[in-house]
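Course assignment 3, question 2. Fill in each field.
Student: A.L.
Task: Predict the tertiary structure for the chain below.
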Amino acid sequence: MVGKKDGKYVLWPAYFDKKLSRDEGRRIPRKEAVENPTVEGLAKAAQSLGLHPVLEKEAKYPSRQWEAKGRVLVDKTGESKSSVLKKIASRL
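Answer field:
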């Protein structure tokens, strides 16, 4: 399990999913979100920002355990997580 001391942010596709509400896990504004985000797409966007993504395809978002959509780990860069999320959303 990745912890705060590992120097990584955990990114779930649910953070960028236009169909989900904030209560269901979306973390960016709906106008910046996309339909059906994938871990591959997140990793590609993170790679273009130089964040060295690591894919974990079998991971399950805690509140949606029935879906194994995976997650992406990216390097912490000294920016806030919300700032990193907005940059990745702009690349999706």
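Instructor remarks: Residues 4-91 form a domain with the Phenylalanyl-tRNA Synthetase; Chain B, domain 1 fold (CATH 3.30.56.30). The chain has a mean pLDDT of 88.
Grade: pending
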